[in-house]
Amino acid sequence: MPIQYYLFLSLALFCIGIMGALMRRNAIIIFMSIELMLNAVNLLLAAFSKMYNDSAAQIFVFFIMVVAAAEVAVGLAIIVMVYRKVHSVDVNILNRLKH
Amino acid sequence: MDILQIIFWILTVMAIGCALGVVLSRNPVNSVIFLILTFFAISGHYLLLNAQFLAIVNIIVYAGAIMVLFLFVIMLMNLNADTEPQKSWLVQLAGVVSGGTLFLVIIAAISKANLLGVINKETTNIGLIKVLGQVLFKQYVLPFEISSVLFLSAMIGAIVIGKKDME
């Protein structure tokens, strides 16, 4: 199995995540797209870990998972708080910092 | 084509199809379900790559904990209807074009690169908990401890942010 297959798969998942973050207006879906991007990077790190027979990359994947879990906890708390204030999770409503 | 390649292609199609489902489905609950399926496909890829510990942690942490948190928030906000207003088709087209352009640019870059690596089929034991634990607690013990502080601060931060105002 050439490494290119895993590169293309991770790249496809990453770009789908980017498209989701750019296309949708629901803040939770944007958050899920970010999770998708993090997972694409994790998959590529695991593939390179197998290729070079080195387990340090899998430790990096572990730390990325740790950071993602912390990020989701804080981010969802922020989204709940925003929903409590403006009764919507539409990111187009959240542009008040502009004016 | 041997059995591992067939499993690889099945998991690849499942991962990409479910990732498209996350982005394209109108109902946020369906998006969460598709994302869980994507995580299962990625866990299958981890198993093919001899990263057994990562496969289990991916299922427990992502599909188990994080997605349940997402589902809770969606149900709390009563978002399980198709009420989301859509962006204009021009903005959606711009999103697709920019994502696709990034895809093409990186493919063009890595197709010229001299990547001759092959992921060989023989099983290694680098993904076992024993080996990973040795590496984690010998070389990476300081980042591990710092990440515990990160978790504590994230927990306190989530509680403080989510608390009702006192006024």
From TrEMBL, chain A:
NDH-1 is composed of 14 different subunits. Subunits NuoA, H, J, K, L, M, N constitute the membrane sector of the complex. This is NADH-quinone oxidoreductase subunit K. It holds the Pfam family Oxidored_q2. NCBIfam families: PRK05715.1-2, PRK05715.1-3. InterPro entries: NADH_UbQ_OxRdtase_chain4L/K, NUOK/Mnh_C1-like. Its main location: membrane. The gene is nuoK. The chain crosses the membrane at residues 6-22, 29-48, 60-83. Keywords: Cell membrane, Membrane, NAD, Quinone, Translocase, Transmembrane, Transmembrane helix, Transport. It is found in: Cell membrane; Membrane. Its EC number is 7.1.1.-. NDH-1 shuttles electrons from NADH, via FMN and iron-sulfur (Fe-S) centers, to quinones in the respiratory chain. The immediate electron acceptor for the enzyme in this species is believed to be a menaquinone. Couples the redox reaction to proton translocation (for every two electrons transferred, four hydrogen ions are translocated across the cytoplasmic membrane), and thus conserves the redox energy in a proton gradient. Belongs to the complex I subunit 4L family. The keyword Translocase applies. It is a multi-pass membrane protein. It comes from Rurimicrobium arvi.
